[in-house]
Protein 1
Amino acid sequence: MKIITIGRGDGCTIQIDNEFISRQHAIIRVYPTGKMELIDKSSNGTSINGRPMKPNTPYRVRRKDVVTFAGQAQLVWSDVPDPLRPWKIAGICLVVILAILGGLYAFKDKLKKKPETIQQGSVPVMTTPPDTTRPKETAQPPKEEEKKAESSQKDDKLRKALERERKANKQKEDKKKQEEPKKEKLDTSNMSLF
């Protein structure tokens, strides 16, 4: 625990030059956990956030509190050491380092595949490093023969489908032609009966 004295006296940690401030006006106890207690030792009084303190009674205070001595001067919190400050800085640094490492991990594949430029004469030539992430079989582009074979298989499938459609249409037309004469014969036979 660290004790900080506040007042007009020469031996005080925080000195305030004002005639209404006592020689030892108040004491702040700062614990290693960051907890702080303020004790009023004055005759003119101390207030926290506008509320007067009872003399010689410890009050818990935080850095956002407004502490006024004898209604004349306010406590400047930057004068009071913060025992947690090194831990806060270390925590912020750790978060920044983890964010950088996370970003590098997320973009590691993109960083590996970045093309390199090699100068040959006056014309720059772009080269890319060999791709080691894929197996060699899939890393090579398909050969021209394979592309031709795939396209000819597609063409054959289309031809066969068109032939089937033509045959089906021809069969429909043939059935229609066969049915038309039968209807005519039926019509003529009915006429003769009357």
Protein 2
Amino acid sequence: MICVGLITFHPFSEPGDDNYGLLYIGSANGGSGGDPLNLSLDLSSNFGKILRIDPLGSDSDNGQYGIPDNRVAVTGVHVFRSDIILQLRNRVLFGDMVNGELLHFNADNIPEGGTEGIRRMLLRDSDGEIKTFLEVIQQKNREQGRSPASRTDLRFGTGPDDQFFLLNKQDGTVRLLIAE
């Protein structure tokens, strides 16, 4: 059994787009307290991932759904090689689960220890306010009438056309990251 945190269709996809009609499924890591079985980093496991399926397809093992040709993996660390967000090109992205900070360093000049070379990445919400990822999550929680999350459980993902996604497993929401 997989605990699913989110099931949704791509909110910006239109008929004719590669993503149109594909179903996104955000799953938990199958453990309690920080992925003790390391399943979210295991690409042979569906735990701790964003899965993308075609509900009208039939090429899965059981023939009940389709598997898109352009598969992608999601983990807690991501090397961003795309040109879609130039500020992140060739950056290694990762997050601090407790305080919701997104961090990065140059993938072509890896720090030799300590924190030198590691930089913070702040986000702008829909109102243009600068926030940490945790603050973005907490704002959405409040809008939904839920208690604000106390931490993040971050996963990164990529999609067609170099789209870049952030997933917080705790609230199961997938967020599309775009350049200013």
Protein 3
Amino acid sequence: MGLDLLELQVRTKKTKANRLRQEGYVPGVIYGKGVSRPIILNRKNLENSVRLLGENAVFNISLEGRSELVRIRELQRDPLTREIIHIDLQSTQEGEKIKAFVPIHFEGKHVLEKKGYIINRQMNKIGIEGLAGTIPAHINVPLSAYDLGQSIKVQDLELAEELSILEAPESIIASINKPGREAEKLDDKADINENTEKEEEGAQV
């Protein structure tokens, strides 16, 4: 999951963040052992890297003539343009275990949608743990194996052996339903409760 060396520059205190963004740079911070270093990156290069490897990427950087392994710790995006406006990096080492929240990608949604079904998501990301460089950009969930009324659980996910899932196995990721099905269930439950209350009132008379 490595990248070619990504060039960074040290950010000076006098440089304003808004000006950097206008000039095509992204301000950020590298966090290490008790220290933090302000840096700037070329936005285009960073966007390409994140698009290719995801928001949990581990890669090498070059800063002041030195090479260093880092991982993406957090990204901030503009709410309208979705461009990256700030990045936090964490200094790491080969063989070090890290934890990350990885996005879930559903494959084959169109097949279920053609049947008139909908996917009710309950989780968009999954917490996993693994060695630096082994964290995937996303986790694929093939929907072809599921049908109406079925649920996709954490225990159904297939990951590489070197990765550990940090979520409860029984946690539901998503369920396959028809539009309005959940509302119908709530209405049926309300009717049952109402009838039960009437029966109890009749018994008390």
Protein 4
Amino acid sequence: MIKNALVLLLIYFVGIAVYNYSLNETNMPPLSDGDLIFQTTNVPHSFALALASGSLYLHTGIIKQSGSGTVVIHAAQTVVETPLSDWIAQGALKRFSVYRYKGLGREHTSYILEALKPYYGRMYDHYFSFDNHEIYSSELAYLAFKQANIPLGKVEKIGSLTVNNSFVTNLIEQRWQNYPACAGKDYTFDQCYEVMMSQEIITAASIADDPNVELIFTNYPF
């Protein structure tokens, strides 16, 4: 899995730099409420997260059609609505993909958008935990669909991801002492690491891999 992720990353971050591939945003079909949009983030730990999940989909949001145009509801520093064009611009090389849940009706999307409202303003969760008030992007999508009684993605243990590499290890070493489940408990690194590996997580990759969603647009070159 590490080899596959490295190949993807090398293609993306090196090959694409010299590959003249059109963004093709003009070919994007009309978007609907509840569509799921994915991108690769430009943050220091992006490489580690891509290796861990085996995917370039590191950030996700939910499409909403508003009076002022198309917006993306997502967990940034806080949960906010961001105009679609601004959301696209913040991703690596403006690459993004849009998926649609099969058979999702208007009554379902209304439930989803309503379920999102209580999360507006919540702070971003850098520790990717279900057990706190903060929230991360794929968790936001997962919980909104769940509250509308629509299963989405696959909850996994962090230890089941590709964590046995130096990039992920370095990220864990930087964060473990402030990790909420370990802080104040006088844990050693090894003890906290074990707690981390047992933590449940929902990744953007698992949402995109859900057999109930289908790709309707991408400008990634593969």
